[in-house]
Design a protein that fits this description.
24% strand; 11 helices; 6-stranded parallel β-sheet; ATP-binding; 4-stranded mixed β-sheet; EC 2.7.1.15; alpha/beta; UDP-N-acetylmuramoyl-L-alanine:D-glutamate ligase; binds alpha-D-ribofuranose
């Protein structure tokens, strides 16, 4: 069983669906409103657990009802929460999501996720050292991402950095990470004014640019490869990237080669968009394997 540690955000997603997005200064009527567990870190932890990994989550929730719901959801999905700390006098992170015109727009209020500090991570060093792979994203403080990248390098534990949402990365963090998985928009921000094909060649088998319904692009040391994804009827794309990252991490941790790991992850992500909610459509391992 692959041992995975996820260090990241846990949020409550407040999702409104509407025919269109309101313009500046405009009020429109929506169609529905739902509250579902989300946050990039939590989504990746839940997905990895559904793919059969033993998953430790390192994160924070607030001392409110959202925090309790998120903890219950981790437990329900078999994610180990020894290092998910409730923060007093602090609200749980929230993501304010509009689903309209076939895509989502998201505003994240970090709340307790800002308390996912190096100090919290220090408490879990034993678990990190014992992991087959560590997954991290960027809805937590920058200094934590930098700290974790150093620790993973020191412990020789592979680190998968999903640089979402985008912010510039120090060269040292890029060097320390084993795998980096931006989408096209994030890659453009990360490597400003650079041609992405040239950037891919600089990071063979390390940089994986996810291109939505096109698939995933990387450089394998000899040539640029595009691993196509699977075409499906899309209901909600929220959490597709998280499903991809978790599945990719689990497959790599189990010793699958890069191309097969991407194929597995592409399939998982394509299934995830066929249902509502970041975690609502995340498939189990059996569902992915059956559909492959
Ligand atoms: O990646 C999807 C996630 O991003 C949502 O669940 C939301 O919480 C936002 O952080």
């Amino acid at each position: 069983m692959a041992k995975i540690t996820v260090i990241g955000s846990s949020s409550m997603d407040l999702v409104v669906t509407a025919q269109k997005r309101p313009n500046k200064g405009e009020t429109i009527l929506g169609e529905s409103f739902k509250t579902v567990p989300g946050g990039k870190g939590a989504n990746q932890a839940v997905a990895a657990a559904r793919f059969g990994a033993k998953v430790h989550m390192i994160g924070c929730v607030g001392d409110d009802s959202f925090g309790k719901t998120i903890l219950d959801n981790f437990n329900k999905n078999g994610v180990i929460t020894t290092y998910v700390e409730p923060v007093t006098h602090c609200e749980t992170g929230t993501a304010h999501i509009t689903l309209a015109e076939g895509d989502n727009s998201i505003i994240v209020v970090k709340g307790a996720n800002d308390h996912v500090t190096p100090k919290l991570v220090e408490k879990a060093l034993g678990v990190i050292r014992d992991s087959d792979i560590v997954l991290i994203q960027q809805e937590i403080p920058e200094e934590t991402v930098e700290y974790v990248s150093k620790i993973c390098k020191e412990y020789k534990v592979p680190l998968l950095l999903n640089p979402a949402p985008a912010r510039r990365l120090k060269e040292e963090v890029i060097e320390n990470a084993t795998y980096i998985t931006p989408n096209e928009h994030e890659a453009t921000l990360l490597f400003q004014n650079e041609d992405l094909h040239t950037v891919l060649r600089r990071y063979p088998n390390k940089l994986f640019i996810t291109e939505g319904k096109n698939g995933v692009r990387y450089y394998d040391g000899k040539e640029e490869v595009l691993v196509p994804t699977f075409q499906v009827d899309v209901v909600d794309t929220t959490g597709a990237g998280d499903t991809f990252n978790a599945a990719f991490a689990v497959a790599l941790a189990e010793g699958q080669n890069i191309k097969d790991s991407i194929r597995f992850a592409n399939r998982a992500a394509s299934l995830s968009v066929t249902k509502f909610g970041a975690q609502g459509g995340m498939p189990t391992r059996e569902e992915v394997e059956r559909s492959l």
